[in-house]
Amino acid sequence: MNQIYSTVKEKLAALRNEMKKEGIDIYVIPTDDYHGSEYVSSYFKAREYMSGFTGSAGTLAVSKDSAILWADGRYFIQAEKELYGSEIKLYKMGEPKVPTPDEYIKSKISEGLLIGFDGRVITAKQGAMWESTAFENGISIYGDIDLIDRVWHARPQLPDGKTFLIPDKLSGESTASKLERLRKKIKAAGASCHLTSTLDEIAWLYNMRGSDVLHTPVFLSYTIIFENHCILYIDENKLDEPCRKHLKKNNINILPYEQIYTDLKNLDKNHNVLIDTSRINYSIKTMIPDDQKTINSPNPIQLMKALKNDVEQKNIRNAYLKDGIACTKFMFWLKTNVGKIPMDEISVADYLESLRREQPGFIDLSFSTICAYKEHAAMMHYSASFESKSQILPEHMLLVDSGAHYDTGTTDITRTFVLGNISSELKTHFTTVLRSMISLAKAKFLEGATGGNLDVLAREPIWQLDIDYKCGTGHGVGYILSVHEGPAAFRWQTGKDQSANIPLQSGMTLTDEPGIYIEGSHGIRLENQLFVKKAEKTVFGQFMDFETVTLCPIDIDGIIPEIMAPEEKAFLNSYHKNVYKKLSPFLSEEENEWLKIYTREI
Fold this sequence. Notes:
Helices cover 34% and strands 19% of the residues. By secondary structure, the chain is α+β, with helices and mostly antiparallel strands. The strands form 8 sheets. The protein has a 6-stranded mixed beta sheet with strand order 11-10-9-7-12-13. Strand 21 and strand 22 form a beta hairpin.
């Protein structure tokens, strides 16, 4: 009978035993699945299993005498708590003198150590970099071994969720049209076919959705797009009958999920294959013969998907109307019942979910709700458990970051609620976060500007307090897809994150979510979603601006109006006027009377 390891130390000891058998000095365990997904199904949560760290991003490296986990600024506090008592040392990414995982691993390869990893969960770009370093030092890497499977004896099965079709009236464009546009881009790149494994891109291209990843409606698959046909590598049992007919209609052949690895070895040498080595895994790349011509270029589907068409934009506005009804009803319930009935971080999140489920077209949450009271909100991605949950009382503040998938779009919204008297410092921080959010939302800029150009607009009011937040200001949002979507983002460190260098284009939708996080005290984040829109065109060029689509009051109990500029007050007052106009027809008389108070002019 296989032994079940219960503690991190036991798991690391078992892993080291397997490493010793293979002569591996350092074994690398990332967060990814075979498709580079941000959120992964239970089967792929190897890093979480081995370390106990539950954040959505991070890399673990284990050697015979040490273990290191890298986490980004969203998770510093959480990681310290979850790693406490284990031997794993936390490396805080982005902090001075802290090497990146790549820098660390390359240095160890240079010392002559053998690096091992499962090439299916490492990008081809990353694996090639380590391979090159190893070659320069006259050694090799061990890139095709899954040691976790040897020590994780109760490992969950691969997911087997069913697919469903998104009709053209909701997608705004048929699969045939998308394929026609994509094939032109493939040809323009000098290729004759395109291989992609990114799940949200495949789902978008084929107007299908699935349920293989919690809160992300995608299905495990790979695909190759040829000039006259496509191949979809997928477990055929996932496909319902409408999806089968849809695929056949569009000349998309179905083959078993794992078969791609053997098929790539026998690909017709006449094909020039377009790949993006930052978005396919190392094992896939190594299966393509060396004499097969490949063209490494950014995946064209990513930008195509990010530019929402008119139907998608219309539907997203409808999704935010539904979401606004649910979130505003929640705010009313919270503000009028806190201190009167029992509440905790889990029960409150559950109540918000129940309100969303009442909305027509609700599919699922778009991520696990972050419901963080008092000092818990200082952990940007705090996750309440039955052990950690706080009782919510009529004092201090509650941060709720949540979202949903509806049949008309995906939402992501954060509000921080004032639940009692708060200090002048907390009000100053709340007002400053609001000013930061407004500063970005009302920006006007020339076409070609990037998220890196504009990120400082949101940070400047917070920087004036000598405070910063260790994450980006905003990210793209998918359409009934991943709540985090590339290629563009609001980030100021343009040299470290290429998403900050992507020009903002009309049709993109991004979040605007600055924050202040003070460990042991409080966290404040406010988040709205923005459409990038074309504004006036003059002799100086095409100007651009944003449309705010989120509909939910900002808690004016946290605001100090005297420290807001007149144009900031005008923006907030106009926003609240629109919130009341759009939502009031769907609320009760009591809720409407309350909403009038919380959308009043300041």
